[in-house]
Write a structure and sequence with these properties.
The complex is a heterodimer.
Chain A: H1 8-11, H2 15-21, H3 26-38, H4 43-55, E1 56-58, H5 66-86, H6 90-112, E2 115-117, E3 124-126, E4 129-133, E5 139-143, E6 149-153, E7 157-161, E8 169-180, E9 189-193, E10 196-200, E11 204-210, E12 215-222, E13 225-229, E14 234-237, E15 241-246, E16 249-254, H7 257-261, E17 267-273, H8 275-286, E18 289-291, E19 302-307, H9 311-321, E20 326-330, E21 333-337
Parallel strand pairs in A: 8-9, 18-21
Antiparallel strand pairs in A: 2-3, 4-7, 5-6, 6-8, 7-8, 8-11, 9-10, 10-13, 11-12, 12-15, 13-14, 15-16, 17-19, 20-21
Helix pairs in contact in A: 2-3
Chain B: H1 8-22, H2 36-44, H3 48-69, H4 73-90, H5 100-119, E1 135-137, H6 142-147, H7 150-162, H8 165-176, H9 181-188, H10 193-206, H11 208-224
Helix pairs in contact in B: 2-3, 3-4, 3-5, 4-5, 5-9, 8-10, 9-10
Classes of the chains: A alpha+beta, B mainly alpha.
Domain FecR protein (chain A): 140-225
Organism (chain A): Splendidivirga corallicola
Protein name (chain A): FecR family protein
Chain lengths: 338, 225
């Protein structure tokens, strides 16, 4: 069903609509604000649906008495101390401390970076962060204050301090980005992605951080980077090497520049790609969703290269070399039939 | 950050206090700035601050949810403790958690229902004069409030609360708590997200007539003014 035919009850069940109401997705924001403008006769229906989504609540709310809440917390902390006490062996203890120390570098950095002690000691630096996102476009590029260039994929975002601290340059990344870091040996550049930290002085490299799979890949193009995980592992990369962190393990892996980083130049490259990989990458690239009524897209492997092509040209290209299918693009859905 | 050795947790705590005193308005820029996955990762590695943060963030929500399931203060309180205790014991074995809230709801619901069955402490909802998972469209609502007479509002509220209990629970988990269909299925023990969607679809469909009436009312007040 098309959005034009939606009634209030359809709107309040539509997850993409709800994303907009809850301001959870940039894509939804962008789409619906435009849609409402171009469909003014739907204004009241949209307004009513929005209000219902926002204001639905429990008829009776129960408040946890503070004394009870605190009592439970105290019991839990006491139980936690006991649990820790039973983990036997000096070595275990040592490992735990090491892990805590490692995680603190990562997470407490995240927690306190907004205002922490800088190198000289008692001088408290208060850092404000701005968030930059790809704004739903394929990619967007911007420069940082030190001259470094960040290319951000459309569905990704970074948190950047308004001003870097005196001894480090630090940012957070969710999603995928390509970095061209301006060289400054006295101020190493740290990129935080979940369990993994990447430290560099001046290089070019890409990072893909998949928060759903808890998987991070760092791909080095030039220069040198050091990648640390929360377990204290540290891996140094040479150009054309990549490191993957997945399932709490970290290992080196080869990567293909065109396939993995081609997006930074608008290139979409498939080599011996299975249908799953093709769909996954097209969905991320064009911010769409595949619908497969027949249960499959195409069979076999696909090879192909595109540069700055629109979606239907890419689909035509795949159609041309692989088996035949029909497609229909509706809103953000692509329906594939055979 | 350079001198972390054996007592990192306590050291951090002092630092937080020192910083927060100087920047009292910025205290929301600490743990709450992190994603669930990041907080969880810290907690999993034994960071006590992370645990306290998780508890403080969710204990009240869990209490309210528990009381909707079973109107027994002591039972709900005990099982909130059990839920977090379970989390403490199992945290090392648990996979990486993207949504801590969902995980807690799921454990609490399972524990509470088991406890209710075991102890047969089940209280009928009439005793408390409240139905389980009662729903309202809260009074802050501008559009409806200004243009809707009491009778219409009551009709919508009654229609909502005539829905079966499980539909109401799914509706509240979806709209108020913000869970996804897959999460709701896991929490409520449904086969898949499809069934959560079905519950909500059925619930909302029965409201369709009331919603249409509401809309006509809003439209007519627009044309009158």
């Amino acid at each position: 069903m098309k959005y034009e035919e939606y009634t209030v009850d359809d709107f309040i069940q539509d997850e993409f609509f709800i994303d907009w109401v809850r301001e959870q997705s940039i894509q939804a924001n962008y789409f619906w604000e435009k849609w409402v403008k171009t469909h003014p006769h739907k204004k009241d229906e949209v307004a009513l649906a929005r209000e219902i989504i926002i204001s639905l609540n429990y008829e009776r709310r129960f408040k946890f008495p503070e004394a009870d809440s605190n009592e439970v917390l105290e019991n839990l902390l006491r139980a936690n101390n006991k649990l820790e006490g039973t983990s036997s062996g000096k070595r275990n203890r040592f490992m735990l401390i090491k892990r805590i120390a490692a995680i603190i570098v990562l997470t407490t950095f995240a927690a306190f970076s907004f205002h922490y002690f800088n190198g000289s000691g008692n001088n408290v630096a208060s850092l404000n962060y701005t968030t930059k996102s790809g704004k739903g476009k394929f990619s967007s590029t911007f420069k940082l204050e030190d001259g470094s260039v960040v290319k951000l994929r459309g569905d990704s975002y970074v948190k950047i301090p308004e001003k870097f601290s005196n001894d480090k340059r630090e940012i957070f990344l969710v999603g995928e980005a390509y970095f061209d870091i301006a060289e400054d040996k006295s101020k190493p550049f740290h990129i935080y992605t979940g369990d993994v930290t990447t430290k560099v002085t001046g290089t070019s490299f890409g990072i893909n951080c998949d928060t759903l799979l808890n998987k991070v890949q760092v791909m080095l193009v030039s220069g040198e980077v050091i990648v640390n995980d929360i377990y204290g592992n540290s891996i140094k990369l040479k150009p054309n090497e990549s490191v993957v962190y997945h399932n709490n393990r970290i290992f080196k892996e080869n990567f293909n520049y065109d396939i993995s980083l081609g997006w930074t130049e608008g290139k979409l490259v498939f080599e011996e790609a299975e249908e799953k990989e093709v769909m996954h990458r097209l969905e991320a690239w064009y911010n769409v969703k595949f619908i497969l009524p027949d249960g499959y897209f195409f069979k076999g492997k696909y090879n192909g290269r595109f540069k700055n092509e629109n979606l239907s040209n890419v689909l035509d290209g795949i159609n041309f070399t692989s088996q035949k299918f029909n497609y229909e693009i509706r809103e953000r859905e692509i329906i594939i039939t055979h | 950050m350079k001198t972390i050795s054996s007592g990192p947790v306590f050291k951090r705590k002092n630092e937080i206090n020192a910083i927060e005193d100087k920047h009292p308005k910025k205290d929301n820029c600490t743990w709450s700035e992190l994603t669930d996955a990041e907080v969880w990762s810290a907690y999993k590695h034994g960071n006590k601050e992370a645990f306290i943060h998780i508890y403080k963030t969710y204990n009240e929500l869990l209490y309210n949810y528990g009381m909707q399931l079973c109107l027994n203060h002591e039972l709900v309180k005990d099982n909130i403790q059990e839920t977090f205790f379970y989390l403490q014991r199992k945290s090392k074995d648990l996979a990486d958690v993207q949504s801590i809230k969902y995980y807690l709801y799921k454990i609490l619901r399972r524990k509470l229902i088991a406890a209710v069955e075991q102890e047969r402490k089940f209280q009928s909802s009439d005793e408390f004069g409240t139905r389980k998972f009662g729903i309202i469209i809260s009074p802050e609502l501008k559009l409806i409030n200004s243009q809707l007479d009491e009778e219409r509002k009551n009709r919508l509220r009654q229609a909502l609360n005539k829905l079966p209990e499980r539909q109401r629970e799914a509706i509240l988990l979806f709209y108020y708590e913000g869970f996804t269909h897959d999460e709701i299925a896991q929490i409520m023990g449904l086969k898949s997200g499809k069934y959560s969607r079905k519950h909500i679809y059925r619930g909302v469909s029965t409201l369709r007539d009331d919603l249409v009436a509401l809309l006509i009312l809003i439209l007519s007040t627009h044309t009158h003014t």
